[in-house]
Design goal:
single chain; 72 residues; mainly beta; five-stranded mixed barrel; 51% strand; globular
Length: 72
């Protein structure tokens, strides 16, 4: 993704296809999987840290691009 912001987030709660997550600054966001990481969906549990990408225009939605390696 062009001009994206990459950061970590902590998963709070799962919904059907998206997850509520908290960014490092405390802001809550809705996180969804990119197509290339959709296979990781079953491994996500509340409290897990993930790497997300956000656009600089909208911090309310994030795309999960990876699970933090020390938690797999």
């Amino acid at each position: 993704m062009e001009n994206c912001i990459t950061t970590t987030a902590t998963i709070l709660a799962p919904y059907s296809d998206i997850f509520e997550a908290t960014l490092p600054n405390g802001k809550k966001t809705l996180a969804h999987f990119s197509r290339s990481t959709l296979h990781l969906k079953e491994k996500i549990v509340p409290g897990m840290r993930v790497t997300v990408e956000l656009t600089p225009f909208d911090f309310d939605v994030a795309r999960i691009v990876a699970i933090q390696s020390n938690e797999i």
